[in-house]
Amino acid sequence: MTLELLKSEIEANVPGCRLEIIPNPSPSGQHSLLIDPEHALAVAGFLRDAAHLRFDYCSNVTGIDWPAPKLSGKMKLKEMGDGMEHDAEEEIEAPATGHLEAVYHLYSMEKKHGPVIVRLRTEDRANRVHLPSLTPVWRSADFQEREIFDLYGIVFDGHPDLRRILMWEEFEDHPMRRDYREPNDYEYEPTAHDEVLRKTREHHGRTA
Amino acid sequence: MDEALKIELSKQGIFATTLQELYNWGRKSSLWPLNFGLACCAIEMIATTMARYDLARFGAEVFRPSPRQADLMIVAGTITKKMAPQVVRLYNQMPEPKYVISMGACAISGGPFKQGYNVLKGIDRYIPVDIYIPGCPPRPEALIDGFMALQKKIDEQQLTGSNRPRHLNADEPSEFPVPQFGAHDLEPSLNPEVWQAPLVNISLADNDDSGTA
Predict the structure, then answer these.
(1) What is the spatial distance between Cα A97 and Cα B209, in angstroms, rounded to a whole number?
(2) Tens digit of pLDDT for each residue in B14-66?
(3) Would you give the distance in Å from CA A100 to the centre of its chain?
(4) What is the ipTM of this complex?
(5) DSSP-derived secondary structure letter, B178
(6) For residue B89, how many C-alpha atoms fall within 13 Å in the half-sphere facing its CB?
(7) Of A168, A146, A151, which Cα lies nearest the Cα of B182?
(8) A140 in contact with chain B, both atoms CB, cutoff 8 A
(9) Chain B contact for A87, CB < 8 A?
(10) Strand ranges (DSSP E) for A1-45?
């Protein structure tokens, strides 16, 4: 079944849902289906339960960070709304545009077909990062949604146990985001090159 | 005591020794490792204790499940920042005399995961390490070699004087501060009394592997 057919079938069965096919231009041609967050749970339930689809196995959930197209390190957006001035570093870490995605890979054990790749997209990267959890539909998404919450900062509403899974509870950053800033704990690298060489220079205060 | 005289006496059936020799022999011959592993190096450590390599030949067959009964901590594997406080706490719970083997690239420096956001750049940032065994992971032969190096180190220790081992020096600490989970990193990120970053000559960083000043 092609993705176009699947799309029209979902649209017929889940009224009001907004779907979009995201083409994949690479040789693998694994096109994916973008689902709006409001209807994600209903669509997921349909994909799992429809007799001829039966996508009963969610093999992988992963996150993607799409920062704003031009992410400038010097961009400082002061928010004075609540009378508090946030410090500059925080502003750089959270530009208001761009978005985060959660990607689900679905297979059917029963019908032996798949994968169908489903995407959910947050509204931005800063505050409106809530998505519905699909763990109630596929139990295997539990830990992987926690991992995305930990490393990307997407908040999955309806998740039974949404805690950090790799980093500790007191940790505040999201290390897999593209604008994550590591603590300056550079120490010594005998064969510094590329990224590490850049760190070496930054640490020693030399830019050349 | 003169070594030649000792040999001569032993030929006559008289065995002479010193308290130091006896004490060191006892310590080095019954090193009981703490039964814990962190990553793939632990698999090699387990293999070392099994029949083929048989660490029991060196008096270390009893892996203790409690730090209270262990002398030797083999830090075998990647220490994540989340795990580091527990490793330091286990070390603190071990009674003196105690020793640490830092096994594998990760335990020494973070290894292939160095500069990652979640990996400690070597356990020697928080606790004193006696023996470093490089490798990824080190083969059982390497662990045995490191173990024998530790035994040799123990055997050569003087019980008095300024070179006496750590546990006989009341001024040396037996416990070390356990790092806390911070908002961005472990706090502190290293214990300066145990470890300090080597001096680096930055002008050499471009071209080569000789970064030390």
Answers:
(1) 42
(2) 888 888 889 999 999 989 999 888 989 999 999 999 999 999 998 888 888 99
(3) 4
(4) 0.74
(5) P
(6) 7
(7) A168
(8) no
(9) no
(10) 19-22, 32-35
